[in-house]
Amino acid sequence: MIGALSDWLRHLVMIILLAAFLDLILPTTSMQKYVRTVLGLIVMLTMLNPITALIQTHFNLNALETRITGPLFGSSMPWQTSSNANKSSGNVTFQTDLSATLREEVQSGLGVSLQSVQVGTRSSADGTPVVTGVTASLGILPSSEKRSVVIQEVQAQIAESLGLPLSTVQVN
What we know:
Blueprint: H1 2-25, H2 32-58, H3 61-69, H4 84-110, E1 114-123, E2 129-138, H5 144-162, E3 169-171
Helix pairs in contact: 1-2
């Protein structure tokens, strides 16, 4: 973190020095105001570079859009279909996507890999799936005394991320 900040600051100082040098060597003409504007924009973009990098790493908007709307050109969510066969297929898709998301979330948040995640759902009155419970299995952990603490942390993270009570989340 400190290394990235010092690199950014060093880069910013170099851009500002370059802009000042170019401003000094340019003759005073009508083009100077345009050159100053362009150099000012370059300095501002350099200053905003860490923010744009942060947004790109933490918010993958394409993946989010695909999860919300389904495949490209899809007009509805996969589980919002009219027939019963498609509803059960949509629930399976929803369960699969949610279990993969939970697996990634636990891996990135706690550094623990889950062997399997099973999501229990039921259909609401309007046909959208409602999560009723989650059952997850942990991989192999180094010590058994640490296992109970990890189970509680995983259970709490899953329950919090889905807004479920702890009693509906089972981790073993």
